[in-house]
Amino acid sequence: MRECKKIKLGELYEVHNGLSKGKQFFGSGYPFLTFSNVFNNWFLPNELTSLVQSSEKERETCSIKKGDVFITRTSETMDELGMSSVALKDYPNATYNGFTKRLRPLTDKVIPEYIGYYLRSQKFRGKFMAFSTMTTRASLANDDLLSMEVEIPDKVVQRHIATILYRYDSLIENYQKQIKLLEESAHRLYKEWFIDLRFPGHENTKIVDGIPEGWEKKKVGNLISKVLRTKQVSANNYLYSGRFPVIDQSRNYIAGYTNDIESLVKVTIPYIVFGDHTRVLKYVPFSFAKGADGTQLIMSNDLERMPQSLFYNSLIEIDLSNYSYARHFKYLKEESILVPPKDIAQRYDKVVSQFCQSIQKSRDQIRHLTEARDRLLPKLMSGEINVNR
User: What superfamily in CATH does domain 216-339 come from?
Assistant: First the structure.
């Protein structure tokens, strides 16, 4: 086994909270690191596309430099707490959001790529769950964070470990880009047909009160079929691997796994999953276990005129952000969407279903690569695999 030093994070980093501002300050100004940027990326994106109006003092206090580690400090769900993302370069004039903490290096003992992988490892993630608290939101205190220990080998070994793991992440990133392009294509077609109303045959269709003749506007709640209740899997019982994937309201497409067959939702027609707290939407074409509280399952009650692929893209267009922290499902059901005739709905579904099949193939590849990387990660960290060979 390789020798590693156990060092408290407080000896390696100083902690600082991020920038909290009102909605009116966003959309223009300087680059801004969002909660989603941190949550969804082990390493910060090359470009920060969100913008905020920040002062010179704010940009100095909440700056982003190479080696900085960003950690989600609060969330609606426990499994979203303590997710890290590491800066591999300086981001001039950028600031970061108030729902994350910044750890700025006090020493050069740690290579940014290595700590990025270490903090996302299953072993270290478990420490966050132990230190965190859950009231109305999950949270993590600075003292608890800085008291946590990390295992640090010498810098040559750190670099070897990071290089090996990055090969997997490069492949994963390519598949993620493919998924994004396919999802954008499906939604672009939705906007063309159902927002711009340039659907097949639109030239010969009358528009009455802003709605094509033969179409209807219905409340979401009147389109939802009653779904059989199933046993939920508590977040504390999520497994790292298992027979059935767990789908919940978190931003991770698959939140974990379970072996509990009683919690299985058998899927013959894809389900839509909606996060009651998080407003996250997921299109799930495979059997799964329903995750923790706040996970709502949606099935259309008219699959001919509102197939699931159309229902999903219709729901994406609904903005519920003004309700802040709340149970959002009741508000979602009050929103109205367009319901086209059967022929239009089925034509859309036929095209988009092909996109969905390709998306699922890419997700399968990501899952295989992620499992291979995550099996390798603890072996590299422990020295079971000798990276000097």
Answer: DNA methylase specificity domains (3.90.220.20)
Pairing state between β 95-96 and 26-33: parallel
List all residues 6 or more positions away from 322 whose beta carbon is below 8 Å from its beta carbon: none
In 240-369 the beta strands, taken as DSSP E runs, fall at 244-247, 256-258, 264-265, 271-275, 281-284, 288-290, 295-298, 336-339
Asked whether the domain spanning 216-339 has the same topology as the one spanning 5-152, the reply is yes
Residue 285 and residue 358: Cα distance in Å, rounded?
12
| Fold type of domain 5-152 | Adenine-n6-DNA-methyltransferase TaqI; Chain A, domain 2 (3.90.220)
Write down the domain spans for the chain. Answer: 5-152, 216-339
Q: Which residues, 6+ apart, have CB-to-CB distance to 119 below 8 Å? A: 69, 71, 84, 86, 150
Task: Classify 214 in phi/psi space as left (phi over 0), alpha (psi -120 to 50) or beta.
Answer: left
Q: Rounded to a whole number, what is the distance in angstroms from the first to the last CA of the chain?
A: 14
Residue 377 · residue 121 · CB < 8 Å? yes
Encoded tokens for 278: 């998080």
Our measurement of the distance from residue 5's CA atom to the centroid of its chain's CA atoms, rounded to an integer in Å, reads 33
pLDDT by 10s per residue, the chain, length 389: 556 788 999 999 999 999 998 888 998 999 999 988 898 889 998 899 999 999 999 999 999 999 999 998 876 556 667 889 999 999 999 999 998 999 999 999 999 999 999 998 877 876 666 665 543 345 667 888 888 889 898 899 999 999 999 999 999 989 999 999 999 999 999 999 999 999 999 999 999 999 999 999 999 999 999 887 888 998 878 887 789 999 999 888 898 899 999 999 999 999 999 999 889 999 999 999 999 778 999 999 999 999 999 999 999 999 988 776 678 999 999 999 999 999 999 999 999 999 999 999 999 999 899 889 888 888 887 778 877 64
How many angstroms separate the Cα of 177 from the Cα of each of 42, 172, 173?
Answer: 15, 9, 6
> How would you classify the pairing of strands 336-339 and 216-219?
antiparallel
Q: Compute φ and ψ for 212, nearest 5 degrees.
A: -60, 145
